[in-house]
C-alpha cells in the first residue's frame, strides 16, 4: 500500500502537500472509484482532527449561529447519499503544458477526477436552522490546513453562491463509499459541492460562514480563477480581474489504450470517461484513430445521475505505425468540446476541456 492508503501505482506528484492521481487504466470501467484509487489534491499538510473535540461553527449573516458536534450533525438532520464525480480544475493540465510551459503547477494527467458516494446532511438543512439574514449571498467554507503556497500563507478556504449552497445535492459529508471519510479526504467532515470544481469541496471543514460577498481566501480570490489573457495571474486576480471558476464544464479523457503504448494492429478496445457538468448528461462521444480525419461513435453508459461521469467504449481498427487516437464529446445541450488546447491555454493551466489525444505505436 502506498502513501495515505493509496494503491502503489498512483502517480505521486508531491508527497507533502500530498498530490496523487491513479493510472488511467485504474479509472477505466469503474463507475465508483475505490478509495485507494481516488485522486487527492492538497495545498498544505494533511491535518489531524480529534473527532471528539472537533466542532463545526455556522456563523456570519445568520440569526441563529450554530456550534455543532459530529453527533449533532448525525442526529439533527436526515442524512442522505449523493454520487458525485469530483474533478480538479487542473485535471488534464499536461494537455496545456504541451502548448506552453506552466511553471509551479502540478502536472495532472487525466486522473485528477474520481467518483464517490458521499453520505452526510444537506447544507441547506443546516442553513435553514441557522436562518440566513437579508443580504446573505455567499457561503464560505474554512479549514485548518495552512497552505505555504498561498500569498500570504493561510488556511485553505473557498465559497459558493448561496443559491448553490441551498441546492439539495450539496452535502456536509462524513462518509465516502460506505466507510468513514479517510483523513486525506477531509475527515471528520468535508463539503461536497457536486458539479463544481473540486476546489470548492473544502475538506477538514470547521466553519461555514454566510456572507454578502465571496470568500476572500486566497484559493477563492486569487487561485482557481481564469486570469485575463496576457496578464500575471496573481496581480490580475488581486485587481479583481479574471473569472472565478465554479461550475464544471464538459470534459472527457481516453483511458485505454495507455498513452505511449505499443500494440498489435487491428481491432482494439478504446475506453474512457466523459463528464457533462452543469447538471447535463453526455449525449455522444466520437473517437478517431487518425487524428480526427474519420470518426466512430462510441457507446456511452447511461447517466447514473446529473453529477457523475459516464463511461464510453468502442473498438477501433488500428493501422500499422504511429497512431493518434482522438475523442470528442457532446453534452445534452449540444455543446461540443473545443478541439485545440492552444485556445484554452491559461497561465495557471485550468479547465483543459480540449479533445484528448493518445499516441500509440501499432505493429
Ligand atoms: N480542502 C482543503 N481544506 N484543503 C485543500 O487543499 N483541495 C481542494 C478540495 N478541498 C483542498 C480542499 C481541491 S483543489 C480539490 S480538487 C479537492 O479538495 C480534492 O479532493 P480529494 O483530495 O478528496 O480528492
Give the SSE map:
Elements: E1 11-14, E2 19-21, H1 24-27, E3 56-60, E4 66-68, H2 70-76, E5 80-87, H3 94-97, E6 113-122, H4 123-130, E7 138-147, E8 154-161, H5 162-165, E9 171-176, E10 179-180, E11 190-192, E12 207-211, H6 218-221, E13 225-226, H7 233-238, E14 243-244, E15 251-256, E16 262-263, E17 266-275, E18 282-288, E19 296-297, E20 299-300, E21 310-318, E22 321-331, E23 357-362
Parallel strand pairs: 3-12, 16-23
Antiparallel strand pairs: 1-2, 3-4, 5-6, 6-9, 7-8, 7-12, 9-10, 9-11, 13-14, 15-17, 17-21, 18-19, 18-22, 20-21, 22-23
Structure description:
By secondary structure, the chain is mainly β. The chain folds into 2 domains: 3-244, Sulfite Oxidase, Chain A, domain 2 (Alpha-Beta Complex), CATH 3.90.420.10; 251-362, Immunoglobulin-like (Sandwich), CATH 2.60.40.650. The protein has helices at residues 24-27, 70-76, 94-97, 123-130, 162-165, 218-221, 233-238; strands at residues 11-14, 19-21, 56-60, 66-68, 80-87, 113-122, 138-147, 154-161, 171-176, 179-180, 190-192, 207-211, 225-226, 243-244, 251-256, 262-263, 266-275, 282-288, 296-297, 299-300, 310-318, 321-331, 357-362. Strand 7 and strand 8 (154-161) form a beta hairpin. The two termini are 36 Å apart.
Amino acid at each position: 500500500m502506498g502513501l495515505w492508503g493509496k494503491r502503489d501505482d498512483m502517480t505521486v506528484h508531491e508527497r507533502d502537500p500530498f498530490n496523487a492521481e491513479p493510472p488511467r487504466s485504474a479509472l477505466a470501467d469503474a463507475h465508483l472509484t475505490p478509495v485507494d484509487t481516488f485522486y487527492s489534491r492538497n495545498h498544505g499538510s494533511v491535518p489531524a482532527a480529534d473527532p471528539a473535540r472537533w466542532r463545526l461553527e455556522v456563523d456570519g449573516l445568520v440569526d441563529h449561529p450554530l456550534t455543532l458536534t459530529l453527533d449533532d450533525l448525525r442526529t439533527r438532520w436526515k442524512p442522505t447519499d449523493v454520487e458525485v464525480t469530483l474533478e480538479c480544475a487542473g485535471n488534464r493540465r499536461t494537455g496545456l503544458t504541451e502548448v506552453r510551459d506552466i511553471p509551479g503547477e502540478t502536472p495532472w494527467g487525466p486522473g485528477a477526477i474520481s467518483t464517490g458516494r458521499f453520505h452526510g446532511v444537506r447544507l441547506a438543512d443546516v442553513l435553514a436552522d441557522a436562518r440566513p439574514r437579508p443580504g446573505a449571498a455567499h457561503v464560505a467554507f474554512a479549514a485548518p490546513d495552512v497552505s505555504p503556497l498561498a500569498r500570504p500563507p493561510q488556511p485553505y478556504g473557498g465559497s459558493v453562491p448561496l443559491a448553490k449552497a441551498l441546492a439539495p445535492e450539496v452535502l456536509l459529508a462524513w462518509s465516502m463509499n460506505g466507510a468513514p471519510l479517510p483523513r486525506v479526504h477531509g475527515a471528520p467532515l468535508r463539503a461536497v459541492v457536486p458539479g463544481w470544481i473540486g476546489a470548492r469541496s473544502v475538506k477538514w471543514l470547521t466553519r461555514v460562514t454566510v456572507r454578502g460577498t465571496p470568500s476572500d481566501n486566497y484559493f477563492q480570490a486569487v487561485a482557481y480563477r481564469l486570469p485575463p489573457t496576457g496578464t500575471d495571474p496573481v496581480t490580475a486576480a488581486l485587481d479583481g480581474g479574471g473569472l472565478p471558476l465554479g461550475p464544471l464544464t464538459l470534459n472527457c479523457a481516453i483511458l485505454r489504450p495507455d498513452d505511449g503504448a505499443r500494440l498489435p494492429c487491428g481491432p482494439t478496445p478504446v475506453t474512457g470517461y466523459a463528464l457533462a457538468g452543469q447538471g447535463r448528461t453526455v449525449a455522444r462521444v466520437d473517437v478517431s484513430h487518425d487524428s480526427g480525419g474519420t470518426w466512430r461513435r462510441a457507446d456511452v453508459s447511461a447517466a447514473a445521475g446529473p453529477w457523475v461521469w459516464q463511461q464510453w467504449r468502442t473498438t477501433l481498427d488500428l493501422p500499422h505505425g504511429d497512431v493518434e487516437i482522438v475523442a470528442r464529446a457532446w453534452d445534452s445541450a449540444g455543446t461540443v468540446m473545443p478541439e485545440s488546447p492552444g485556445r484554452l491555454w491559461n497561465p495557471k493551466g485550468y479547465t483543459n476541456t480540449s479533445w484528448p489525444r493518445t499516441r500509440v505505436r501499432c505493429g
